[in-house]
Amino acid sequence: MTSTVDTTRELAAFLRTRRERLTPGAAGLPVREQQRRTPGLRREEVAELAGVSTDYVVRLEQGRGLRPSVEVLEALARALRLTDSERIYLFDLAQQRPPSSAQPEHEVPAPALTKLIRVFSPLPAMLVNHRCDILAWNPEMAALLLDFAAVPERRRNALWLCLMHPELRDRYGDRERIIQDGIADLRAAWAAHPDDPALAAMIAELTATSPEFARNWDRRDVLVRGRGRKPLRHPVVGDLMVEFEVLLSQQDPDQRIIVYHAADAASEAALARLGS
């Protein structure tokens, strides 16, 4: 099938328009009084700022079939003062993956998403990051799964709790599949965040302490699920079936909301009893 976008031509046009809109002062260059023949920066100035040759910039802007490396794209993004959205667009056009930023060990939940968690009540909802760290939750999710506030912060991780916490080990009716899916999702996150030391340390710890994790990690399964079903065995309301939906934030792409809702009438009644 023929692509609807000529990425080479679009990359050339995008770089040219970003260069032409950027003034020397905004780029950190000396401002000269004489009139410029063309708007924005000159190609030589972009080349100097990015650490590449002027001829390379010319060929890029002429769409002459170049495929810039990740390092060159990063240098061009800095030189042209691209926004985060523009940087991602540049990498997409060049068919490259932007390097992930280093993640803090203890991530701060986005306030807007934390507020949204409360809005979802009475549906159980929680906020997690790419490491499956549980950043926020509403009372209904705590009642359904676990009192997360009673768990040390460094252990508030959905996968670690499912593997190691005694209250959650038997909470899932199809535990083996839940574990396999969770580890497959974590492997996808690991590939997308290769420079995250906290994620690497977590994987190393679970590999050393959980034979179940180590066995499934070695399978190298990869699966990112946006929705599904989970059978639960609750000590108060009994067996129930919940469906989950994963909601991604454009503003905070490494944080996602997971919302549970009843899959059938009996489960809906069970959740209602739990909430009351």
Task: Describe the protein in words.
This is Helix-turn-helix domain-containing protein. Residues 40-87 form the HTH cro/C1-type domain. It holds the Pfam family MLTR_LBD. The chain has 276 residues and is α+β, with helices and mostly antiparallel strands. Helices cover 46% and strands 13% of the residues. The chain has two domains: 7-93, Orthogonal Bundle (434 Repressor (Amino-terminal Domain)), CATH 1.10.260.40; 111-275, Beta-Lactamase. A five-stranded antiparallel sheet has the order 2-1-5-4-3. Helix 2 (43-50) crosses helix 4 (70-79) and helix 11 crosses helix 12 (211-217). The radius of gyration is 24 Å and the shape is elongated. The mean pLDDT is 89.
